[in-house]
Amino acid sequence: MAKNITITGGAGFIGSNLTAYYIKKGYSVTVFDNLSRKGSRSNVDWLKRIGRFKLINGDITNFADCRKAVKDSSAIFHLAAQVAVTTSVDNPREDFTTNALGTFNMLEAARLSGQRPVFIFSSTNKVYGGMENIKVIEVDGQYLYRDLAKGVPERMNLDFHSPYGCSKGAADQYVRDYFRIYGLPTLVFRQSCIYGPRQFGIEDQGWVAWFIIAASLGKKITIYGDGKQVRDVLYVDDLVRLFDLALTKISTLKGKVFNVGGGADNILSVWTKFGPILDRLFGRKIKVRFDNWRPGDQKVYISAISLVQKEIGWKPKVSVEEGVKKLYSWVAENRKLFIYTEIIYAL
After folding, report:
1. Which residues in the chain belong to E strands, given as ranges?
2. 26: exposed, middle or buried (Cβ count in 10 Å: 0-12, 13-18, 19+)
3. Which class for 342: exposed (0-12), middle (13-18), buried (19 or more C-beta within 10 A)?
4. pLDDT tens-digit profile of 42-76?
5. What is the pTM of this model?
6. What does the DSSP assignment read for 63-92?
7. Tens digits of per-residue pLDDT, 153-198?
8. I want to staple 80 with a disulfide (CB 3.0 to 4.6 A). Which of 8, 136, 182, 288 is the partner?
9. Phi-psi bin for 140: left (phi > 0), alpha (psi -120 to 50), beta?
10. Would residue 164 show up in a list of annotated catalytic residues for this protein?
11. For residue range 132-154, what is the model confidence (pLDDT) as tens digits?
12. Catalytic choice (22, 128, 145, 164)
């Protein structure tokens, strides 16, 4: 079993939770991160209180940094990315360099290391595009698929939409092909909305966390669209558990692709359902403003997770209500941290 693990983006939201998990298990963990993302330095400080790990302050766009980071790795979790659709529209070159070239660099570094490390990649549901041909209906104030009761399956046609969708989609396919062409034991998880502690959400990405943070700090919340958009949401502890389970079963999983999210049992509309939950948690009415839809924003995205359940034996354990309450409690307990982070990064 892999004991020397490299986690790109290991100081980010998902990465720091995954790093903490493996530190506690006694693994040798290398965090490879450029520390540019809001909250990443705070996450590093938190990880140092948990245990020992190696930090490489480098960038996946620098091939020499990549080779250094994976030199002795038996497993690589590639989580580092440019993660916002809006940012990709504003700066498509940087988005491409980070997501497409950065992933290619990591794959080549893994291939040339001579270690044949396991390579697990965090892809995205955006590889399926807007799915305009899929019928959407409105039920009880939220959008749902008319004919996909269990959500989007892996056999859905790829349709890269937005620069972000293109860059992550290209990376997604490169990861798949490095198993087929080079025999690298790779695995792709096309993730839906992940949320939980250590998430320094911003308006463009990490909306579940952002709404809670914004409400806590008295900041304006803007809903782009009508607030009836639906996503399946997955608590980060459930994702970490999946990563670890997949690592132990990589011999039968290598080369495969799975849709990963909360599934049809864990859906949340952006405001019509989420708003009342926040009102109850804060004990007051949370005010929001509405604006135009953003490019590439799907009315609905729900992952069909039957394949990952069948082949890996995994399913989410944390419900939407429980997960949102956990995140709310973490934000409340760390309010000073968000204020401090806001000052440093000029949010």
Report:
1. 4-8, 28-33, 54-57, 75-78, 118-124, 136-139, 142-145, 186-191, 193-195, 222-224, 230-235, 256-260, 267-269, 289-291, 300-301
2. exposed
3. middle
4. 999 999 999 999 999 999 999 999 999 999 999 99
5. 0.95
6. HHHHHHHHTT-SEEEE------HHHHHH-H
7. 999 999 998 899 999 999 999 999 999 999 999 999 999 999 999 9
8. 8
9. left
10. yes
11. 999 999 999 999 999 999 999 99
12. 164
260-299 tens-digit pLDDT: 999 999 999 999 999 999 999 999 999 999 999 987 678 9
Strands 28-33 vs 4-8: parallel, antiparallel or unpaired: parallel
Are 275 and 288 in contact by the 8 Å Cβ rule? The answer is yes
- Token look-up 């069948």 returns 310
pLDDT mean across residues, the chain = 94
CATH of the domain at 292: 3.40.50.720
Neighbours of 70 (CB within 10 A): 29
| Joined tokens for residue 25 | 């298990």
Domain containing residue 68: 4-345
Question: What residues are paired with 142 via a beta bridge?
Answer: 139
